[in-house]
Structure formats: structure tokens, C-alpha cells
Specification:
With 355 residues, the chain is mainly α. The chain is built from 13 helices and two strands; from the N terminus they run ααααααααββααααα. 36% of the residues are buried.
Length: 355
Amino acid sequence: MRLLKLELRKLLRGPAIWLFLALCVAVNALVVLGTGHRYEIAWANERMKKEGTRYSEDYGLFDGLAGDMLAMLRRDQDMSPLAKKIQLWKYEKLAPEIEAKALRGDGLDVYFFDSSERIHKSVFENLGQLLNAECGAFFVLMVLWALGSEHMAGTAQVALATKTGRRNAAHKMIAALLLGTGFFAALYGLSYSLCFAVNNFSQVWAQSISSQSRMILMDFFGPIPILTWGPMTVAGYFRRYVLAAYLNCLALGLMAIPFGLLIKNVYAAFCGVAGVCFLQLMAGLFGSVWGVQPFAWYLAIALPVTQLSRTRYWCTDGGGVMLLPHFELLYPLIVIALLCLVLLFSARQFRRKDI
């Protein structure tokens, strides 16, 4: 514990951390203030006070939707057989919830009326993706800085010459991940506190996220309502979004550890992590082969960088590109579990390698 505290103090003394945090907060503040929707929200809130928070009639948003989606999947020719089988299983499980949404009248909640799409995209997708990029980068930089500090200071041959010195790498990893978590909490807290001070969400937190005021464009299906695996309010959506973002950023930090452990040059380690992130994005964007998505493409979609770039799918059924229910939480947890195995192998190699 004492060594962990010392590593935390050493990292916190670096002015670059505080400068990076201040810069990110300033950029996010400019984005929030520059794209605020306070006038549209004020108009919508006044209308809700007069007319209520529910539409007077249902447009049949969910009626027959499950059957239509299953029929489209069965006809689809651009999906690998295994992926199609899993997708059909997923939507057969989701069908009862779609029917329950129709009975509950989830689509009747007004959200922000006709402005719902613009406001939601600005507040959650645009600002959220900016925050995810900043926090993900911080996790990676913290890990590489912590593990490469001895090499940068020229003390690696002394510090890593003993078993005790090498075991201290574990304290460095934990300190970096703790600091990344603190940075995530601070940046998300400050940025969204300002966002919700500018944009008054007080009347919509308890409304259903599956409002008919907001449709989402899904691969394979086109525009459909937001489908969730159970009742979900706007507040529930936000909480789940933040948790999914944290898990994916943590996975990015864990992904950087083998590079920091096994590559002596910090800049080369950073280039290695950047290269892997680039490959993840390319695999997610250009995974199709001869017009048919191979099953490996669906696996590439699960990787953290790809997930952080596809936040519009989070807290939904995921459309035809996400294979598992609750994928926004399951995918990063699966990746973290696999990375833990990689870390065990990397730690073993680190203990054996020459300095």
C-alpha cells in the first residue's frame, strides 16, 4: 500500500496531468456552451407544463415490429450464417419486450417533442464521444507514463535490476488505472454538470427513452424506435451510458499495459497502442469481404475503440451489427477478461526479460 501511495504521488506531481484536465474541461465547456439547446428545451418544458408529458394517441410504434425485424433478418444475404443465427436468437428473445413496450405505451412519452433527436445527439452522442476520446487517451497515456517513467528517467537498470523493483510494476499499473478512473469521474462530472445546468432535463429524466419523438437509424433495419431490454428512462439511459463508457476506457488502459511492460521505449509503446487502435477502427469500418460480413467483423465491433466510436447504438438492441443483448456492458467486460489473460502472460515475460 505504501508503494502504491508513492506511485500515485509521483504521478500526481506531474503538471501535465492537471494541464490536460484543464484543457479538456475548457474544450468541453466551449462545446457545451456553443451547442446548448436551452431555448428549444425551455420551449419544450413550457409545452409539457401545458399539455403533459405524454402524447394523447399511440402511433403503433411497436406494433408488429418484432415480426418485421425477424423477417428482414431471414431475407438478409450480407450476413454470415453464424451471425444470422445469433441475430435471430437475439430478436426472438427481444420480441416479448417489444410487445410489452407497445402495451406500456413507451412511445407515448414526448421527450423534447420534435427537438428530441437534435438535443439527444448533441448532449449524449457528440459530447459523450468527445469525453470518451479524452478519457480513453488519458488512460493509455497514464499507463505508458507510469510503466515507462524509469526508462524516461534513465534509472531503469537500477530500479528493475531486482525482483522487488520489477514487482513494483504492479503498483505502477494500479496507480495509473486509479488515476485514469479519477480523471474519468472528474471530467464526466464537470462536463455533464455544466451540460445539464445549460440544458434543463428535469422534466424528461423519468420519461421513456423509447419515445416516438426519437427514431434511430440502424444498420439492416433503417429508422426504428430505440429498443431496450426492459423499461428504460432517460436517466437510466444516462447512467448506463456512463458505465459503458468507463468500462471501454478501462479496457483501453488495460490494452496499453503489455506495450508499457514489454517495450522499453515509451514512444514506441505509444505507437504500438495507436497502431492497434487504428486497426480496430479499420476492422470495424471496412470488415466486409465481397459484400458479405464475415463473422470476424462482428467480433471486431466488440473491441473498445470501435465501441467508443459507435455510442449511438449503446443502450439499444444494437441493430444488426451487435450480436449480444446488453452488448454495451457485456462487450467491454468480455474484452477486460481476455485482457487479464494477456496481462498474466505479459507479466511473466516482463519478469524474465533483460532490461
